[in-house]
Automatic annotation (TrEMBL):
SUPFAM superfamilies: FAD-linked reductases, C-terminal domain, FAD/NAD(P)-binding domain. Its main location: cytoplasm. GO terms for cellular component: cytosol; nucleus; Rab-protein geranylgeranyltransferase complex. GO terms for molecular function: GDP-dissociation inhibitor activity; GTPase activator activity. Keywords: Cytoplasm, GTPase activation. Transmembrane segments: none annotated. This is Rab proteins geranylgeranyltransferase component A. PANTHER family: CHM, RAB ESCORT PROTEIN 1 (PTHR11787:SF4), RAB GDP-DISSOCIATION INHIBITOR (PTHR11787).
């Protein structure tokens, strides 16, 4: 019950996104009394994952909230002398311009129900804040083998993949097909093996909606990095399951091509000449320990990375591969930064698979929940659909000493962490935000045909005019448990340049996909 919450905590956290969830787990683990709140009725905040119907409900709710205004702070009698307040937003303003489109055939979708959906009596739909005030209980994790850290560190072994090279306690699910190099064909983006497939309709998607886990923010992880290290050291990895990204693609010369990354991929590639293969391997070997050879790049430290690549006599195709799909930087990136990015890519190769990237099964929204579970195990108290009206500030020390929750209860605390979406524009007046345009697609074929229909792909589409940013795309197959069989879940993103995400991303979508209800999307 909200009224039964203790009047004092060490740490109060508002928002259950990934950063907030990590801090909650860390504080609970060292014995701090943690109260973790979220005005939403789900975990993850803007990092959450939804089923198909859940995403539609989220969109409808979000549009309704945009028309509402924040209520003034009540219970001001709780504010003592020599105290001030910082009002908090009651609605999220960080997401804007949400639009939905369908290019699939419809078969009376209005009467189709989701398989497995339950008929819930209206009296059970109680969203009172008192429903979420009990500590989150840990559900037993499925038994998984204890796995060891990989031993190989050298560049020479980066092309090898070991079944045992997995995150300890986690499960790196095997891919049904390895990421072998595929000989790309012109216009391969619009080629699809549809002869043996039944056309996917909107009704099919609604009916199988529970098989979708759609991220609001989809990201792949480098196999070496701070988050992977944190998952291992904190033992949160025992709750998680990953799959290795099977191939890295790029859009080059009007077609989609697979980028050779490892030594084996380079020398088996049919896209590169023998001279290009040797040039690329020589360059990648240098990048693996470029710090040991400063004389090689000393004259280009203050120059663009592209200039350095040209000085190494890389062909235009090799320059494109290195810039867009290996280093993943722009043409104007500093040479040293480009070398660091390339080196990091190479060091991540071979740790868990033939590419350096991992994707979380069931979507990224599972990771915040894993940290929330850990916090709850160590005593953290969780209240969903429960928020804060304001922060109480000591006028002398300028420190936050308490909060007033949505029920008007004053809760004393030593530390407060608030997700930025709850902070008002006045509070964040000095903060400069960067807008990101995102698109989520459900498609019935891959952007690049392959022998397997279970490829997990990362694709870079560079700007043609050089004035806009590259568009990054992740294509997920059904084996990631993010979409139904015979479909793909596609996420596209880029820094915002125009007024809406549609204006930024539609030209790329038209290049890669056939938006035709007769031919499928």
């Amino acid at each position: 019950m909200a009224a039964d919450l203790p009047a004092e905590f060490d740490v109060v956290i508002l928002g259950t996104g990934l950063p907030e969830s990590i801090v909650a787990a860390a504080c609970s683990r060292i014995g701090q009394r943690v109260l973790h709140l979220d005005s939403r009725n789900y975990y993850g905040g803007n990092w959450a994952s939804f089923t198909f119907s859940g995403l539609q409900s989220w969109i409808d709710e979000y549009k309704q909230r945009e028309a509402t205004t924040d209520e003034p702070v009540t219970n001001k009698e709780q504010i003592l002398e020599n105290e001030g307040i910082i009002p908090l937003n009651q609605r999220d303003r960080t997401i804007r311009n949400i639009e939905t489109f369908s290019f699939s055939k419809s078969e009376d979708s209005n009467i189709v129900e989701e398989i497995g959906a339950l008929s819930i009596k209206p009296e059970l739909l109680n969203t009172n804040p008192t429903d979420g005030d009990q500590p989150l209980q840990e559900s037993p994790a499925p038994e998984q083998p204890e796995l060891q850290e990989p031993q190989s560190e050298s560049v020479e072994h980066q092309e090898t993949t070991s079944e045992s090279d997995q995150i300890p306690g986690a499960n790196i699910a095997p891919n049904s097909e390895g990421g072998s190099t595929t000989d790309a064909e012109p216009n391969a983006a619009k080629v699809c093996q549809t002869e043996s497939r039944k056309s996917i309709t909107y009704s099919d998607i609604v009916r199988e909606g529970r098989r979708f886990n759609i991220d609001l923010v989809s990201k792949f992880l480098y196999s070496r990095g701070l988050l992977i290290d944190l998952l291992i050291k904190s033992n949160v990895s025992r709750y998680t399951e990953f799959k290795n990204v099977t191939r890295i693609l790029t859009y080059h010369n009007g077609r989609i091509e697979q980028v050779p990354c490892s030594r084996a991929d380079v020398f088996s590639s049919k896209q590169l000449s023998m001279i290009e293969k040797r040039t690329l391997m020589k360059f990648l070997t240098f990048c693996a320990d470029y710090e040991q050879h400063p004389e090689e790049y000393q004259d280009y430290k203050d120059s663009a990375f592209l200039d350095f690549l040209q000085s190494k006599r890389l062909t235009p195709s090799l320059q494109h591969f290195v810039l867009c799909s290996i280093a993943m930087v722009s043409k104007n990136t500093n040479t040293v930064d480009g070398l660091k990015a390339t080196q990091h890519f190479l060091r991540c190769l071979g740790r868990y698979g033939n590419t350096p990237f991992l994707f979380h099964m069931y979507g990224l929204g599972e990771i915040p929940q894993c940290f929330c579970r850990m916090s709850a195990v160590f005593g953290g108290i969780y209240c969903l659909h429960h928020s804060l009206q304001c922060l109480v500030i000591d006028e002398d020390s300028k420190q936050c000493k308490a909060v007033i929750d949505s029920s008007g209860k004053r809760i004393s605390c030593n530390y407060v962490l608030v997700e930025d979406s709850y902070l008002s524009e006045v509070t964040c007046a000095q903060v400069q935000y960067r807008q990101i345009s995102r698109a989520i697609l459900i498609t019935d074929c891959s952007v690049l045909k392959s022998e397997s229909d279970q490829e997990i792909s990362v694709l870079t589409v560079p700007s043609e005019d050089g004035r806009q940013n590259a568009v990054y795309m992740t294509e997920l197959c059904s084996s990631t448990n993010t979409c139904m069989k015979n479909t793909y879940l596609v996420h596209l993103s880029c820094p915002s340049v125009k007024a809406t995400a549609r204006e930024d991303l539609e030209p790329v979508i038209q290049k890669l996909f056939t938006l035709d209800a007769d031919g499928g999307e």
